[in-house]
Amino acid sequence: MSFKEVEQFLDKIAPLANLSSDQLKSLKRPNKILQKTLNINGKKYPAFRVQFNNARGPYKGGIRFHPHISLDEVKSLAFWMTLKTAIADIPFGGAKGGITLDSKQLSQKDLQQLSRQYIRAFYKDLGPTKDIPAPDVYTTPQIMAWMLDEYETLTQTSSPGMITGKPLELGGSLIRDIATALGGVFILEEAIEQLHISQKTVIIQGFGNAGMNIAHLLAQRGFKIIGVSDSHGAILNRNGVDIEKVIEIKQKTGSVVNYLTAERLTNEKLVTIGCAILIPAALGNIITKDNAKYINAQIILELANGPTTLEADEILHQQKVFVIPDVLANSGGVTVSYFEWVQNNQGFYWREEEVALRLKDKMQRAFNNIWEESKNKSYNFRTATYLYALKRIIAAEKLRGKIYL
Ligand code: NAD
Fold it and tell me: 178-329 belongs to which CATH class?
């Protein structure tokens, strides 16, 4: 979603949040934008870090490596991070970073050099009490390890809490790898209970970290996964697909479409198939004004960032589809990143069950607090979620004397 759309949505909900024009202006303005051009073998790569808001704590947000990432998109993602940390009630602000590159074209050696250059470019603005990056699309625990090493070399410190999503050997947290999916499951379970939904059919678009893990976790809990997809296409079997088999085939052949006990169809068609729960877990702008009217699900759980356009969101609301917005649905990832940072700061590491239990508590509280506040309101659940987050951010800004009444 472009930052212009983020601004339009804020304009729309400003009266509901009783925002003054000064407050609105301040909420739309990132605190700091860092930009640098990195260079490997004579080729130039634009690099960004947007530190959006730190009223509630140090900046927090991932670093994305993608051929189409732009400053505008990083700004939107940094804004959403500010909302996510407020919703999950963790003491962070919001930031995001990125390098415009196709990482598949780079050797491991060059990828390491570029990751180190990124830290050399911005390290004075990073740190465990300033701004804490993490992985995002096409960045991995290995890349976090190189970045940590570069930071510690430059600062001559041991600072494991300067970055999260690290390998376990360097201070990573247990279950960080499945945290986004597991957080999504905890939130979905609450929604199903509140909405009294008994059908358990699921369609998942995208089969990477978020999509594959939630497929596995939901199948374990007795949900019937009837369709899944990846960038090569989609498969559907209304009697349910054998998800462990699909995972095995995806890992062996590179795509879910090689699972043969199912019908083949396009990604566009898959999202319109009738089901109880639709989970977009791939890219942004998947549900638009053109296909929203054909969506035939009771709940949409947005594991991807920005899968629904604003126009589509309104149509879904009119059709009584309950949309759990990205800033809530996928906040399990940043929540376990916070647990990783806590463990790094105290130098004491938790068992797997402890991390999972704390995650469940945070997700249940976030969902139910917003549910309570959204009851009997005419606006949709996304609006209620934004209002909940904005209230917390504004309260912190006011206490700091940054926003005047
Ligand atoms: P990933 O790179 O591991 O997986 C992406 C998946 O999407 C792949 O299976 C790919 O084949 C598929 N895909 C790509 N283009 C597609 C298309 N046109 N149609 C259908 N599938 C397509 O990425 P991920 O980490 O799983 O992230 C997926 C989404 O979830 C992103 O929007 C990301 O921002 C969001 N998210 C992820 C996390 C996390 O912790 N992984 C946290 C928060 C949000």
Answer: alpha beta
Catalytic positions, written as ranges? 96
Site to substitute for ligand 1 among 64, 137, 268, most atoms within 8 A of C-beta: 137
Rounded to 10°, the helix 71-87/381-399 angle is: 80
Atom 13, ligand 1: residue with shortest CA distance: 231
Longest CA span, the chain: 62
Write the pLDDT tens digit of every residue in 338-394.
999 999 999 999 999 999 999 999 999 999 999 999 988 889 999 999 999 999 999
> What type of residue sits at position 201?
T
Q: Which CATH entry fits the domain spanning 30-174: 1.10.357.140, 2.60.40.1640, 3.10.310.40, 3.40.50.10860?
A: 3.40.50.10860
Q: How confident is the model over 176-211, as pLDDT tens digits?
A: 999 999 999 999 999 999 999 999 999 999 999 999
